[in-house]
Structures are given as C-alpha cells and as structure tokens.
Amino acid sequence: MKNGSLSDKAVTRLDRCHCLMFSRHVWRLIGCIALGFCLGGLSLHAATLLPGFTETQYGSTLDPGSPTAMAFSPDGRLFVCLQGGQLRVIKNGTLLATPFVTLTVDSFNERGLLGITFDPNFASNQFLYVYYTVPGTPAHNRVSRFTASGDVAAAGSEVIILDLDNLSSFGNHNGGAIHFGPDGKLYVGVGENNNGANAQTLTNRLGKLLRINADGSLPADNPFFNTAIGANRAIWALGLRNPYTFAFQSGTGRMFINDVGANTWEEINDGIAGSNYGWSICEGACSPPNANFRDPLFQYGHTAACAIVGGAFYNPPINQFPAGYLDKYFFADLCGNWIRVMDPSHNTASDFATGLVTPVDLQVGPDGSLYYLIRGNGGQVWKVSAPPSQPLDISTRSHVASGNSVMIGGFIITGNAPKRVIVRALGPSLQQFNVPNPLADPVLELHGSNGAFINSNNDWRDAQETEIRSSGLAPQNNLESALIATLQPGAYTAIVIGQGGSSGVGLVEVYDLDLTAASKLGNISTRSFVQADDNRLIGGFILGTNIGAAKVIVRALGPSLTQFGIGNALADPTLELRDSNGAQLFANDNWQDDPNQAAQITASGLAPANPLESAISTSLFPGAYTAIVAGKNGGTGIGLVEIYNIP
Ligand SMILES: [Ca+2]
Ligand SMILES: [Ca+2]
Ligand SMILES: [Ca+2]
User: Fold this and answer.
1) Which ligand minimizes its atom distance to the CA of 298?
2) Is the peptide bond between 23 and the residue preceding it cis, with omega within 30 degrees of 0?
3) DSSP 444
4) Measured in angstroms, how far is the CA atom of residue 504 from the centroid of ligand 2?
5) Cα gap 190→204, rounded to integer Å
6) Predicted local confidence at residue 243, as pLDDT
C-alpha cells in the first residue's frame, strides 16, 4: 500500500526538496519545509489572487512555525495550533507573545497539536477544545478542554474529554479537525493511522468521524449507538482515511468532510450520519459503483496536488466578497499551493488563488475575509479581502414644499483630498418614471457645514453648461438645476425649493466625479415632509468601483428632530431598503426591534435618539439601492433619511 506517498508529478514539482529522497511522505515533506531545509528554493511572495481581491499578512510569522490548524473565537481572536504544542493567539491582527497554552505533545511525523474549536457557549463558559497527540508508548490522540482566562488558559483547567485508540508506530493519518455542529454536539475527525482496515471496522474509532457531547459522554442517538460497543458508540461516520479538515455551513448546518487521498483522489464528502465513505475499498468514487459506500461530492486528482487541507463555507456574519461567493466552499491543497472554490449547487470547482506556500487551513473570518494558514515562510496567516465598493451617487426624492417643508439634502465627503462632485435637483424629468405632481421648476442651493453659501442654480444651462454636459450628467429638462463643485472633505447641504414657492415631488442627488481621489461620499441625509405613497421620502444610492460589499447603515428619523426646533416632526417613521429591482431587502419599524441589529447600530455610534425611529445595518454588494421612509399607519410630518457608508 502506498498510503501517503506523493504522486510522481507532485514529487517532480517539489524536487528541489532534498528531504524527499528520504521520505515519500507528504507530511515529512512539509515537516522539512517547516524546518527550513527547503526554504532556499522557495520564494516568499504572497499568493496570486483573482482580480479585485487583495491580501495582507495577518499577525507576524508563527515562531516556532509548523502550524496545523486555526479557529476564530466567538469574540474575534484567531487561535493557531502549532504542531509542537503551542496554541498561539492573534488578537486585533497582532500575534501575542505569550501562547495561550503550550502542551506537551508527540509531534513525530504528522502527530502533534492538530485541532482547535470553541464551545458554543464560549461567551459564558470560556471553554475551548483542542486535539493533540499524547506522548507515550504507545502514543494516542486526545481531545481536551481548557478554560480561557483572558488570552491564556486558566492554570490547571485542562479536562480530558476523549482519549482515542492507541496508535501504531506509524505517525501519519491522525485527522485532528474538531467542530461543534448546529446540534451542539462535538464532531471529531480521526485518521486511520496508516491502516486502511481501521476505517471499515466499528471496533475502533480510527478512520472515523465521531460525535460526542461536549463533556465527552456519548449521545444515544448516534447512528451506531446500538451496534458498536463502548467508546465506539461515538462513531458517526466511517470509511475515512485522513479527515484532516471538515466544516459546517452556517445557517444550513450542512457538513463537508475533506478526506485526504492516497495515490489518486482527494475528496470532498457530504457529511451525513451513518455514512461509509469507502476507504480503503475505494479511493474517490467507487468504480464500479458500490451501494454500501457514499461517493464524494467532488474529487480531484494529483496533477499539481497531493492533499486536501482546509475547508470553509462562505457564509460570514458580514458579507464582504462579491455575491457569487455566498454559499460556496473554499478548499486548499497542501502541495498544489492553491485555494479553489467549490459550488455545492453543481459540485464543480474553480480557481481562487495560486502560489501559496504550503497551505494547511482556511477560515472565513467574522469580517467576511478569507484567512489562510501556511506552513511555508516559517508559518504565517494571510487575510484575503475584497475591498469595499463605495458610493458613486447618492440621491433623495421627496415632496418639496415651502418653509420647513423644502427638501434639504446633506452629504459628507470623507477622506483627505478634495472631491469633484455634481449636485442636481430634478423635477420635470421625474414624469417619465410615472411620478405624479413633479416639482415643475426646481432651484438648488449648496451650503457648507457652517451654513456658508457656496453656490446656487435655478436652471442648469444658466452657468457651467459646458462643464455639466461634459460630465455626462446634464439634466434632461432645462428647468432643472445642476452645479459642479470641487469640495474639501466636510459636511455640505443642498437645499431644493420650487421656483416661485411652487410644490411637488423633487429629487436631489450628488455624484462623485473623481473616483480616484483619496476621498469618498460618506453619507447623505435628507430632510423633507413625508407623506403617503408617491410623496414618501426616498433615498437612493449606487455602490461601485471595488468588488466587495460596502457596510451601510440607513436611518429614518422623526421624533428626535423636534430637539432641533422642527415642528410637525414625523411621529413614528418606518424604513424599507430595496434593491434595483424594487425587491425589499430589509424593513424596520423601530430600530431596537432586532437585538442583533440594535447592537450593530449602537456599536457604530449611530443609535437613533428615539425608540420609534428606524435603522438598518447591513453590507451591500455593488449595485443600486433605495431607502423608503414612510409614517407608520399613514402618519405624515417632517422626516429625515440618512445613508451612512461605514469604513
Ligand atoms: Ca472516500
Ligand atoms: Ca429651475
Ligand atoms: Ca417606527
């Protein structure tokens, strides 16, 4: 049996590594890389990513190296296992000098500290779990629990949860991945210890996926609880060779198991209770098909590849990558030095990144970035990001009348450089969008943050006609207003009134004419008299330029406007956010209705002053959006819509 040997092609690819001549084993290969024997032949460049993505190293290099796995704590710290027994912590992007804990492990061959996960109730109990090889003759793998005390383990807090079967003299195929499922049970990936027969028997736990309670006791609803004996009742699935990584999808709870193949196929398997994944009868899909075994969802051969490591579904709490990555599954190959992305709806995969130096694990972070762990370069974590799109255009439509009911649009330019913008006030051209009673003849005034008058315009051809035409944004009707200005970072106000005191539905908008400047349109807020139906207050914005999602908070204010001396404020606003097709993405009445939303809004410093006011916090893909403010139960009054682009 050629368990663990590299394919000839993979060997050729890495033939500068002399230690290969002494070992055909994959893990020995990466062990020697980590020890630095091979680094002279490897460049230290970062990965090659798809267009639009960027990456940065996350924390400093993981001295003494040889990382194996990583996991984010629920509070956002990244914990990284080093094979030699150190559990390191990267906090706010900085590698802490003191390890969380340093375990005494057997790190021969593929053994060592191999897995880490956090208790679902970590916030209250501070429990985390690790998988490591206990030294001894014979050695065995173990899952232990520790209690965090800040950034280190509380002294004496280790509790042994699971002691696995004794190992043979072979040091390879230990598995090591551990994760809690949506059912609150702890799942443990265990390798077959270089003995294919182990994978097919219920008389030991090697070559299995196990399911246990967090305290190590065994759930009575395990699939082999009544057929296996004793500790083997932990078996949840079998027929695995080396399930080095697996992952649960947030939301669906679906599990994918990466099983490292021998000579031919690397597998992504559908994690289903009671399944037998075929090893060592089959590697990859069984040929001919065998009804006793569950074939992989996806498999790839050993052309520039040798071992599947790292699996992460893209279902982060905050979307960051383009919409097409949602629900996809990232995986990496140890000596292919790439990351690919699998589409579970078609079971196909495509390239994502190449040129990594010996990747070993992947995680999608709470910020929506993809983090990858490499054993090369001394052991490093890298963070792949999709830079956020930015507002290209912000606008508001509402009913314009006189006095306090004129439309007042405020916008902020953030950053460090002047920004060239065009501000427009539209009325007659809204007719083509079936807006009844459009403002017949708008007049626009632009003011600075202290109220200082900057410029005004009645009809756009009165001044700047050539400049406005060359911007491509000339209004369609000669009575509409526009002006171009180059503005320093700061707050601005655009006031729209009807010529001669007339009233009707108007639209004010600001376009960014200089996307390359080191500044951007940070937000828009528009105050207006809110009525029903077509006279609701509507804020619009377009996000673009970069591929990533932008963090946005939208607010609808009413009652709190009275503190600014505004009479007839909208008593109880409601807010809707819609996409360019008019589909409703979010709706909110009172901003504290959803505790998670309220927490995000408060954390951003944008909590409305009145509990009846509305707010939505989200991240949005490039595209056009509208925010619609109305009065609850048909109420009317002066309201304010605000759209904030959160850095
Ligand atoms: Ca299989
Ligand atoms: Ca006009
Ligand atoms: Ca409300």
Assistant:
1) 1
2) no
3) E
4) 13
5) 11
6) 98
Q: Which ligand has an atom closest to residue 282 CA?
A: 1
Full-prediction pTM beyond 0.70?
yes
Q: What ranges in 417-511 are assigned the alpha helix state H?
A: 465-470
Name the residue among 336, 343, 342, 338 with its Cα closest to residue 302: 336
Q: Do 493 and 527 contact (CB within 8 A), yes or no? A: no
Measured distance between the N- and C-terminal CA atoms of the chain, rounded to whole angstroms:
55
Distance from chain centroid for Cα 412: 28
Nearest to 458 by CA among 496, 487, 432: 496
Residues with CB under 5 A from ligand 1 (ion): 267, 277-278
Ligand nearest to the CA of 630: 3
Tokens, residue 272: 């289903």
pLDDT value for 464: 96
Output b/e per residue, 337-360; b: 16+ Cβ within 10 A.
Answer: bbbbbbebeeeebeebbeebbbbb
| Residues contacting 523, CB < 8 A, separation 6+ | 394, 411, 412, 642, 643, 644, 645
CA gap 143, 120 in Å, rounded: 16
- Rounded Cα distance, 199 and 229, in Å: 16
How much is the average pLDDT of 219-234?
98
Distance from the alpha carbon of residue 509 to the mean position of ligand 2, in angstroms: 15
- C-alpha 432 to ligand 2 mean position (Å): 18
Q: DSSP secondary-structure letter at 85?
A: S
Alpha carbon of 437 to ligand 3 centroid (Å): 27
CB 538, CB 401: distance < 8 Å: no
H/E stretch holding 595: helix 595-603
Confidence of residue 277 (pLDDT cuts 50, 70, 90): very high
Handedness of CA 239, 241, 244, 249 (dihedral sign): negative
- Cα of 520 vs centre of ligand 2, distance in Å, is 28
How far apart, in Å, are the Cα atoms of 234 and each of 163, 188, 200?
A: 12, 9, 15
C-alpha 302: how far from chain center: 30
* Best CA proximity match to 408, nearest among 492, 502, 476: 492
Distance (Å) of CA 143 to CA 116, 188, 290 = 9, 9, 34
Q: Which domains, and CATH codes, for the chain?
A: 8-385 (2.120.10.30), 390-646 (2.60.120.380)
Long-range CB pairs of 322-331 (<8 Å, 24+ gap) are 322/52, 322/386, 322/547, 322/548, 322/549, 322/621, 322/622, 323/621, 327/249, 329/247, 329/249, 329/256, 329/268, 330/362, 330/364, 330/370, 331/258, 331/268, 331/362
Ligand 1 centroid to Cα of residue 181, in Å, is 21
Gap from CA of 458 to ligand 2 centroid (Å): 4
Which segment of 155-159, 312-316, 499-503 scores lowest on mean pLDDT? 499-503
What's the token pair of residue 400?
């314009």
For residue 42, pLDDT over 50 is answered with no
* One-letter amino acid of 326: L
CA of 162 to the centre of ligand 1 (A): 25
Instruction: Report CA(334)–ligand 1 centroid distance (Å).
Output: 18
